[in-house]
Write a structure and sequence with these properties.
Elements lengths: L5 H5 L4 E6 L1 H4 L8 H16 L3 E6 L2 H9 L8 H24 L5 E6 L1 H5 L1 H16 L3 E6 L6 H5 L2 H11 L4 E6 L20 E3 L3 H6 L11 H13 L4 E6 L5 H6 L6 E4 L7 H7 L4 E7 L1 H8 L10 E6 L6 E5 L5 E6 L4 H7 L7 H5 L13 E3 L1
Parallel strand pairs: 1-2, 1-5, 2-4, 3-4, 5-7, 6-8, 9-11
Antiparallel strand pairs: 7-8, 9-10, 11-12, 12-13
The structure holds adenosine-5'-diphosphate and ligand VHF.
Pathway: Amino-acid biosynthesis; L-proline biosynthesis; L-glutamate 5-semialdehyde from L-glutamate: step 1/2
InterPro entries: AceGlu_kinase-like_sf (IPR036393), Asp/Glu/Uridylate_kinase (IPR001048), G5K_ProB (IPR041739), Glu/AcGlu_kinase (IPR001057), Glu_5kinase (IPR011529), Glu_5kinase/COase_Synthase (IPR005715), Glutamate_5-kinase_CS (IPR019797), PUA (IPR002478)
EC number: 2.7.2.11
Length: 377
Amino acid sequence: MSGSTIKTVLTGCRRIVVKVGSSLVTNQGAGLDLKALGNWARQIAALNGKGYEVVLVSSGAIAEGMQRLGWTSRPVAIHELQAAAAVGQMGLVQAYESCFRHHDLHAAQVLLTHADLADRERYLNARATLTTLLSLRVIPIINENDTVVTDEIKFGDNDTLGALVTNLIDADALVILTDQSGLFTADPRKDPSATLVASAQAGDASLEAMAGGAGSAIGRGGMLTKILAAKRAAASCAHTVIASGHEPDVLLHLFEGVAIGTLLTAPALPLAARKQWLAGHLQVTGRLVLDQGAIKALRSDGKSLLPIGVKQVSGEFGRGSVVACVSEQGTDIARGLVNYNSDEAVRIAGRASQDIATLLGYGGDAEIIHRDNLVLL
Ligand SMILES: Nc1ncnc2c1ncn2[C@@H]1O[C@H](COP(=O)(O)OP(=O)(O)O)[C@@H](O)[C@H]1O
Ligand SMILES: N[C@@H](CCC(=O)OP(=O)(O)O)C(=O)O
């Protein structure tokens, strides 16, 4: 996207993921910096008030857990790190909860792993929960679920998680706040002649050569994980900004269009990239035969597939599986992630969405495949 600036790119955004790194939420790694948390909450509340949907990815659990347990140095044993994260996560969400309460907002704790987002059913569930929270104007606070995985804790990288969440909810932008003003041509802690990169294309291979590892004992991922996160976010057409969390009112200024930090633009793709992601995962496990009305709704009107337009269901599949949508003549129409398993799909096929709760005994999505999870063929 040549000629893109923070102003042209960010002022049009509505759904944002903000990632604050360990270096910004802790007091040199010992406990939480409550003033800093209050500062993020104030800015996010102001953006929320202006109609932005903001998800916060925040580190800090291990640092807080260490302090609560009276540990003065970061343990090396993975299980001790996991224990610290479990203790500290309580403090992290308590702190955010009270900060957001000052602004009359609810916060929600969401703990995720990379594996959750690679599994289609969990992907759909996480997406539905997060988008529902956003529609309720609640601020989701996301961290890694350090209890059940160890890879993340070893690499200590919430940057990747931020990008995965950006893909998951189709966010327009990912803002990574850290302790440096942005991406420099080399690690500024080691090379004082390094200069700030104001903007570049996300995924540009030369950026990876500039980025080094973490420069402090607190941060873990360094700049490389941020560059790779921007590349990943660009896969769903989201732009990334890497900026300093020490800049006063950085979030407010960015979304007013002030040029701060490094802008990594996503290429404009003809097909929404999350659908490309879907297209790459298309291993069909079932088949839905659609009537003419449903085919028109999908092809001409860009609508979701409702159960009423499904004439026949074949195959055995679970919620989140990829199914083929075909015409009565067998022509391929679309593929998508289905919201119901095959038994449920058989029961609701041909029926109105408002009857789903009566037919199944529990309520669910009105769509059998949401248009965001559907690729036309
Ligand atoms: N090219 C670069 N430009 C800026 N910072 C860099 C670069 N290469 C490495 N770094 C280091 O990355 C650090 C930020 O990453 P990290 O410590 O993991 O922070 P966070 O906790 O915010 O994720 C900086 O303090 C800096 O020393
Ligand atoms: N999930 C862990 C660590 C994550 C972490 O340090 O990530 P980062 O902020 O990218 O360096 C925590 O909350 O302490």
